[in-house]
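Supplementary Methods S3. Complex input for the zinc ion-bound model.
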Amino acid sequence: MSRTLIKGGTVVTASETVRCDVLIEGEKVVALLGGDAPEPTVDRVIDATDRLIFPGSVDAHTHMEIPFGAATSKDTFETGTQAAAWGGTTTIIDFPIQMKGESLMGSFEDTMAKAAGSSAIDFGFHQIVGDVNEQSLADLDLVLEEGVTSYKLFTAYPGVYYSTDAEVAKVMQWASGNGSTILMHAENGSAIDLLREQAVARGDTAPYAHAATRPAALEGEAAHRVILLAEMTGAPVYIVHISAKQVVAEIAAARARGTNAFGETCPQYLYLELAMLDQGFEGAKYVCSPPLRDPAEGHQAALWQGLSNGALQVIATDHCPFDFEGQKTLGRDDFTQIPNGLPVVEHRFPLMLHAALAEQRFSLNRMVEISAAAPAKMFGLYPQKGTIAVGCDADIAIVDPAATSVISAETHHMNVDYSCFEGMELTGKVETVFSRGQLIVSDDRFVGSKSHGRYLRRGLNQLLF
Ligand code: DUC
Ligand code: ZN
Ligand code: ZN
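Predicted complex, serialized as structure tokens:
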């Protein structure tokens, strides 16, 4: 078995910052060597002098090649996982999507067929339950046997993914019986649809209306409702892509009551804002759901604070990229036809690194917690993923903390024609990435392979009270 020594760097995990060398044998970390430990015999030495060595990052929320209205998200598992690797992410959790009238097991099998053999990094799945009926409830047991321990439902998108409160409660009852976690897209879909119809009827069709018709209060209301349903049923609930301060408060209050309620936000809700939609049709580049919010209302500040104080546990991306030309432009005359989603998977870890190194938003250890350790624990992958310790997968990102880079569509690796973070200068640069002991990014080149990534059968949530 091949042996690699990462020498001279500083290992940063969620709990420790330690000057030591990392010995990799095959796919695993086999030793952390400090002080005057004798140098082992190895096949390869990576010089990590003045570098920080992080666990490969874990993005718990991506959407590769999914349909949204008339468009399909541009990154395939092949292109999206390579882009993730460039940014130090070595695990993604993506979503088979059962839509209304479709087979749940069929959606799982189709997504597995797309991902297997096409992913540069390891991947797991959360199952989207878009049609709650006898057959899909029976299929849930089969998908659970495949190592899918989290299920996503929507209080948004009536007619597409939407579930009634009774349907949400029914799947939560099923989950509380086996310990799996329910992910919720929390926005009040039917009230939003009313506002959308009214906006279109009065000719208010520009991208800004997308945000104006999805007010923060309707995100807070839906979060409140699904947390109460979780309390009623006993299922753990994890609210995805939180953009509104009301939801942070709902989760903090629920956790203070001892409820297993968890929250995720994404870099776009921290670094981007409502005004970006208010620039004519260019605003379509920033259309996602929930929408970007107004910092004057305190949403971004509440999200940063929630990530620091533990009200929010995870930073993921909801990566769902659509080209501006040809895809976002489907909604040129009507914002309701703009495919929702932003390209983020490559820059989540670099942005969080920047938040810690340059902006001192939180410590580097807390940064590792929210971007790697907590998502791994939340979704039953720890300590195989999310840390650097003897016996864990050798998923590692080596970073030069003194280097800088500028985000641009010209240089990014996502398969999409624009960047929503265009021109942003970041402190800290991911230089070298390993996935299960295989070098996949080195010397500014992708050196991995499209068939390296393996499906991850996951355990239950490891963060329950
Ligand atoms: N929100 C998005 O912006 N895109 C994909 C799905 C979602 O809920
Ligand atoms: Zn969603
Ligand atoms: Zn999503």
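The domain at 57-378 is CATH 3.20.20.140 (TIM Barrel). The two ends are 40 Å apart (CA to CA).
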